[in-house]
């Protein structure tokens, strides 16, 4: 399935991942509050790095430049795992944050922004996961592997 819009979505996913990395790094670097020691914030820092430097570059570049690395089961698996990671991350952080009327300092505001960008990342990965799973189902339904073996068989052997 050739989807040219998917590359634009990948760029947005990388940009949002970098924003999450920057904001969580800011929160972790502020040693004056307890958010800098939060496991949820550390998890979101990992998740931003995972998205911006590992998963999205693989998902965007492997089908184009390295087709042997873009296995038909690996692409949907990476999509599903990353989507679940983002869902867990932004829900966990949103549950820990105080209500907006009590959030008057910069690290709390940064974490509110991280929660919003995490929700956007989850939505983006939900959309791309849907298309990856649909592509996998269409690939299995057409029986491409069966036609490959049928054309590659040596009739005289």
| Overall outline | elongated
Compute the average pLDDT.
Answer: 86
Give the helix level as a range of percent.
over 70%
Question: How many helix segments?
Answer: 5
- Unreliable spans are 146-157
E-strand count? 0
| Class by alpha and beta content | mainly alpha
Number of domains: 1
> In angstroms, what separates the terminal alpha carbons?
35 Å
Describe the main β-sheet briefly: none
Give a brief description:
With 157 residues, the chain is mostly helical.
How would you sum up this structure, described in words?
It holds the Pfam family MARVEL. The chain has 157 residues and is mainly α. It has one domain (11-145). It contains five helices and no strands. It has helices at residues 5-29, 39-65, 74-96, 106-142, 144-152. Helix 2 (39-65) packs antiparallel against helix 3 (74-96). The longest helix has 37 residues, at 106-142. The radius of gyration is 20 Å and the shape is elongated. The two termini are 35 Å apart. Mean pLDDT is 86; it is low at 146-157.
Labels describing this entry:
157 residues, mainly alpha, 5 helices, disordered C terminus, MARVEL domain-containing protein, transmembrane helix
SSE map:
Layout: H1 5-29, H2 39-65, H3 74-96, H4 106-142, H5 144-152
């Amino acid at each position: 399935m050739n989807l040219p819009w998917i590359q634009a979505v990948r760029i947005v996913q990388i940009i949002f991942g970098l924003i999450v990395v920057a904001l969580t790094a800011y929160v972790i670097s502020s040693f004056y509050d307890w958010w800098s020691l939060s496991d949820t914030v550390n998890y979101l820092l990992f998740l931003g790095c995972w998205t911006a430097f590992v998963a999205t570059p693989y998902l965007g570049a492997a089908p184009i430049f390295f087709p042997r690395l873009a296995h038909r089961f690996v692409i949907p698996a990476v999509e599903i795992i990353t989507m679940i990671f983002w869902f867990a991350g932004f829900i966990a952080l949103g549950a820990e944050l105080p209500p907006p009327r009590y959030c008057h300092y910069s690290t709390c505001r940064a974490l509110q922004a991280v929660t919003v960008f995490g929700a956007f990342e989850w939505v983006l990965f939900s959309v791309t996961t849907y298309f990856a799973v649909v592509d996998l189902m269409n690939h299995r339904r057409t029986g491409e592997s069966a036609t490959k073996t049928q054309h590659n068989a040596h009739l005289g052997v």
